[in-house]
Amino acid sequence: MLSKYFTKAMSALLILGMIGLFSTGCGTKTATNGSNQPESSQSGSVAGSSQGDSAFPVSKEQITIKILKPLVTYDTDYSKMPVLQDFEKKSNIHIEWNTPSATDFNDKYSLIMASGELPDAIIAMPSDDIEKYGQQGVLVTLNDILDKEMPNLQKVLSQYPQAKKVITGTDGKIYSMPFVYRKCYGNDVPIIREDWLHKLNLQMPVTTDDWFNVLKAFKEGDPNENGKQDELPYSGDGVFDLTSFVMAWGIGFRDSTDFYGFYAAEKLYPKDNKIHFGPIETRYKEALQYVNKLFTEGLVDPEVLTNDGKAFQAKMTQDLVGSSRGYFGGDLTSMNETAHKNGMNDFHLVVAPVIKGPYGDQYHTITDVPALPNGFAITKSNKYPVETARWADYWYSEEGQKSMLGVEGKSYTDTNGELKFTDWVLKNPEGKTSNEAWGSLTPGRSIWPSVWIPISANLQFDSQEVRDAKQNILTSEYLAEPLPSRMSFSQADNDQRKQVMADITTYVNESVINFIIGKKSFSEWDQYVDTVKSMGIDEITAIYQKAYSEWQSK
To answer: What pairing do the DSSP bridges indicate for beta strands 121-122 and 63-68?
Structure first.
C-alpha cells in the first residue's frame, strides 16, 4: 500500500521513461598523437571524439566490446537493429550483446556479477549497485575520461545539472553515465469526471473549498442519472489517495517506501530549505482534518482504504466514482478507454488543476527522477575503456539523440528542428504496434546512455487529456520536488534510517488512517507527535539533512 504510483512509475522507467524538451549535444575535442593522447590498453587506437559523423571511426582498428543490457518487450534483437548496425560500421566497434529479457535481467545480472566473468559494459545496471561496485574497483572511474574524451556528455550535463549530481558519488567519483529526462511532470495527479461537472453545471474545482463543494454536489446531484444516491464523489485504492491532499497545505508528499514522509522545504512549507518530516507538521494535521471532514460527510468511498486497483477501476468505469488521484498516463487513459468500450460515451476523466490550499499553496510534488544513473557503466574487464566511453558519448550528441527515434524519413521526420514520429510508427502498415515498429529500429525505447526523446515526438503517444495536463496544468511554477531522488547515505546512516523508519512508518500509517476515519481524535495529535519523536524521528531527519546538504554541494 505504500507506493502504488511510485511502483508503477519506476517499472515504466525501465521500459519507457518520461519525456521533455529536445536538446542537442556537441563538442570538438579530438585525440592527438602527442603526449595528451588518451591511453588505450590495447591496439584499437582511438580515432576521434564522438561529435556526430565527424568523429568516425571511433577506433581505427575494429574491436569488440561485450555489453550486458535487458531486452525490453517489443524490442528486436539489438544486433539486428538498423540504427546499431549502421553505428557499428561507422564506429568500427563490434558489440557482442548479452540481452536477457527485462523480467529475468536482475537474476542473470546477479549471476554474472558473482561469477567474476564481467562484460565490458552494462546498461541498466541496478542503480543501487553502481556506487558499491565502483568503490570496490569493479567499475571504471570516469571522471578523467568524461573531462577529456566525452564532449557530448559534458554538454548534456551542463544543460541538465541535476543529471551530473545523479551520477556523482559521495566521494566525488563518477562510475556511470546517465539516462536523462528532459522534463519531469509528476504522475500522481487529481483526476475528475468532467462530464459530471458539465451535467451539474459546476466549474472545475481549484481550491480545497471548491473541491468540498463539488464533491458534495456529486453526492447529492445524481450525475450518473440513475435516480439513486449511489455516487462515490471521491475514491481510490489506498490511504495515499487521501493523504495526497496534504500537498495543498504546502507539505511535501512522497509515498515511496524509501523516502516516505520527508521533504525539503525549499518551495514548500515552511520554505526554510531544510528537511522536514511531513506527518508531524501542524499543517499535516490541518490537512487530515479536512480529509476527515470529507470522510465523515460521506464524500469519500467508505472502501477507499481497502480497494485494490481492480476494484477501484471497476467502480470508476461503472459510472459510480467522480474523482480520485491517478497516474495520468495509465489510470486516466485506461479508464477512459475502458468506459468508452463499455458504451459510456459521455465518460470523460481529465486531470484537474493543481489544488490550491487555504494558505495559497498550489504545488504538485513530483516524484519522477530527472535522470537515472545507470545509462552506461564500464567494468574493470574492459580492455578499451576510452573507445567504449566514446562509443557511448556519441548517443549524447545531436545525431545520437535523433537516432533514439529510429531512421529519419522512415520512423521520424525533422521539420526545422521539430522531431515527430511518422505513421510508419503510429499507424504501421504491417500491423505492428507503435512499440513494435519503433523497437525494430532502435534501442531508444529503454534506458540508454542518451537523453529521452523530444516532447514533440512523445506527445504523439499521449491521449488528448494527457497532452492537456502536460502542456497546460503541470507547468514548472506548480511543480516542487519533495526530495532529490538519488541522495546518498553512508552505510551506517543508511542502516539506521531503515531500521528506525520501519517502526515509525508502521505507526504513522496506522495513526493517519485512524485520524481520517475518526477512530483517533485530533485531541490526541500532540501525543501522536511526541510518540513519533520518541521513536527517533529527529535523528533520522538529521541524517536526511546531512544527505540533502551533500547533494546541494555537489
So the answer is: parallel
